[in-house]
């Protein structure tokens, strides 16, 4: 297992462009985008279920008249 100091040094080299790889800013942005994507998928699923519920309620209302 690598020592934490070595990992921090390598990450600092990536951040400064001396080493290839994902920078801390890119990694943080990717995490934020993944979180936003997950939240949007959950919101879409909720809206899809609500839409189906209200569509069914509208159909039931029409036949009960």
Protein model, in words:
The chain is mainly alpha-helical and about 60 residues long. The chain has one domain. Helices cover about 80% and strands about 0% of the residues. The longest helix is centred in the C-terminal third of the chain and has 40 residues, at about 25-65.
How many H/I helical runs? Answer: 2
Low-confidence stretches: none
Structural class by SSE content: mainly alpha
Instruction: List the domain count as a whole number.
Output: 1
Determine Rg (CA atoms, Å).
24 Å
Q: Which percent bin holds the helix content?
A: over 70%
- The SSE string, one letter per element, is HH
Strand content range: under 5%
Major sheet details: none
What coarse outline follows from CA principal-axis ratios? Answer: rod-shaped
**How far apart lie the N and C ends?**
72 Å
The average pLDDT value, as a whole number, equals 90
Write down how many β-strands occur, each being a DSSP E stretch of 2 or more residues: 0
Helix-strand blueprint:
Layout (H helix, E strand, L loop, with lengths): L3 H13 L7 H40 L2
Give a quick set of tags describing it.
65 residues, mainly alpha, 82% helix
């Amino acid at each position: 297992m690598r020592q934490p100091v070595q990992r921090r040094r390598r990450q600092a080299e990536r951040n400064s462009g001396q080493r290839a790889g994902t920078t801390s800013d890119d990694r943080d942005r990717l995490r934020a985008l993944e979180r936003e994507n997950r939240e949007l998928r959950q919101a879409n699923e909720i809206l899809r279920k609500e839409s189906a519920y209200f569509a069914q309620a509208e159909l039931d209302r029409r036949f009960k008249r």
